[in-house]
Amino acid sequence: MRYVLGVLAIAVLAVGISLYWVGRPTPVPATPPPPIPTSVLDQLPKERKGQVLIYGAYGFTGKGISQLASEYGITPVLAGRNESKLKPLADSLGYDYVVLPLDNNHDNLVKVLKHFEIVLHIAGPYTYTAKPMLDAVVEAGTHYVDLTGENHVIQAELDRDEEFKRANIMVMPAVGYDVVPTDCLNMYVADKISQPTQLTVVLNGNYTAAEGAQASRGTMKSGLEMLGRPLLKRENGKMVAMAKPELIHRKENGQEQTLLQIPWADMITSYVSIGIPNIEVFQVQDGELPTWLLRVAQSDAGRRVLGWLIDNFAPEGPPPGAQENRQTRIVSTVSNEAGATASAALITPEGYLLTFHSTLIIARRVIDGQWEPGFQTVAKVYGPDLVLEVPGVSRTDL
User: Fold this and answer.
1) 103 or 207: which leads in pLDDT
2) Do 341 and 262 meet the contact criterion of CB atoms below 8 Å apart?
3) What CA–CA distance (Å, rounded) separates 377 from 356?
4) CA torsion 131→135→136→137, rounded to 10°?
5) How far is it, in rounded angstroms, from Cα 206 to Cα 131?
């Protein structure tokens, strides 16, 4: 027995040390890397008009966007921090690439970005990656889009609106499944009644089910950042904290459903787009979210441990079969104080597949000259029908 207890004690100690090790904060380099070589800069586009940089190109979503870019007449340069992942992708697609860390690398970022009209910033979690890229695009004069669904990141971008206007650049967050379909659908239904005051969005990410993962590693890690922050909703024009998410039990087409309130980015983006003061977003819940996960995600060390587990054990993203067959359904409903209501639904392809297309549709719009300076949202600039340009999207009035 003493021997068994000793072995168990050693095992527990080993696990504790391992968790401490992977949970340590990644140190930011104390000094900037050396200046990027002139020979590298000379290989970048000489004229920035129409030039697109995809940063974070070798992640699941970045890879999908890079592979689809040529269908939109875009020949991007690929960028990221890890050359061993970046070079094989660039070589396979016949694109140039540039190795470019974000941390403490402002001057090199600016030098590279000055060669491009727009950067598609695909590297999250944006809690850590958005600010260094945004600081650089302001100085370089480069338009910026990203895929963040992190409300605190979007709010930080909104707070810099005047700075972006002075730089004469457009900064547009959330140009993927967060939040192109919802922002466009929300504007569509809001235009159907006078002075809408309440918006409710319901997401069903598995409307047409398919086997395989629903989320990529990057999305899961960004989700951890959201779990570690207070749950907020838009109420009377302000973001207010909630003690716990609201649950709604209902029947849909004879089937029992549970709707779970989630901190979707529409609470900021659609408030900017259409000005509705009360916004709630729910998702059709598949299974229960473990309570231990919420507790672990509340600490910085816990999120780093979970992030390490995701990096090492989670699927890279949905398999091709799931992307081809899975569909999502989104229903947006608005009402006003007079009691008028309007609802509509979108059927969309799988979320990542939609993201590949929507990101490139917007990039194409920007390099064709369709952009507005400052912080912008999708529906505000491009209107409610932009989402219908994505293959496989349909809209129905309810």
Assistant:
1) 103
2) no
3) 18
4) 100
5) 33
| Each residue's pLDDT tens digit, 388-397 | 999 999 999 9
Q: Per the structure block, which two tokens stand in for 338?
A: 């007079």
Query: Residues for the chain: how many in total?
Result: 398
Residue 198 or residue 211, greater confidence = 198
90, HSE (Cβ side, Cα atoms, 13 Å): 21
Domain ranges of the chain: 38-172, 180-350+388-397
Topology classification of domain 180-350+388-397? Dihydrodipicolinate Reductase; domain 2 (3.30.360)
pLDDT in tens, 142-186: 999 999 999 999 999 999 999 999 999 999 999 999 999 999 999
pLDDT tier, 9 (very low <50, low <70, confident <90, very high otherwise): very low
Which DSSP state fits 194? S
What's the whole-number average pLDDT of the chain? 86
Of 270, 268, 224, which is closest to residue 124 (Cα–Cα)?
224
- Measured CA to CA, the distance from residue 134 to residue 111 in angstroms comes to 14
- Residue listed under structure tokens 């870019």: 69
Distance CA 220, CA 237 (A): 29
State the Cα–Cα distance between residues 69 and 360, nearest whole angstrom.
7
Distance CA(107)–CA(104), nearest Å, equals: 9
Residue that the structure tokens 């930080």 belong to = 156
Alpha-carbon distances of 144 from 121, 131, 169, 373, rounded to whole Å: 7, 12, 8, 11
Q: What is the pLDDT of residues 337-350, one digit of tens each?
A: 999 999 999 999 99
Q: How much is the pLDDT for 249?
A: 82
- In the chain, alpha helices (H): 2-22, 38-41, 60-68, 83-93, 106-113, 126-140, 151-158, 161-166, 180-190, 217-227, 266-274, 291-297, 300-313, 320-325, 351-367, 378-382
Report the distance separating Cα 48 and Cα 360, nearest Å: 17
Q: Which CATH class is domain 38-172?
A: alpha beta
Rounded Cα distance between 96 and 67, Å, is: 13
CB contact at 8 A, 231 and 117: no
Query: What's the pTM value of the predicted model, to 2 decimals?
Result: 0.86
Q: What does the alpha-carbon distance between residue 139 and residue 110 come to, in Å, rounded to a whole number?
A: 7
Decide if pLDDT at 117 tops 80.
Answer: yes
Place of tokens 């109420």: 235
Q: Rounded to whole angstroms, how far apart are CA atoms 103 and 27?
A: 10
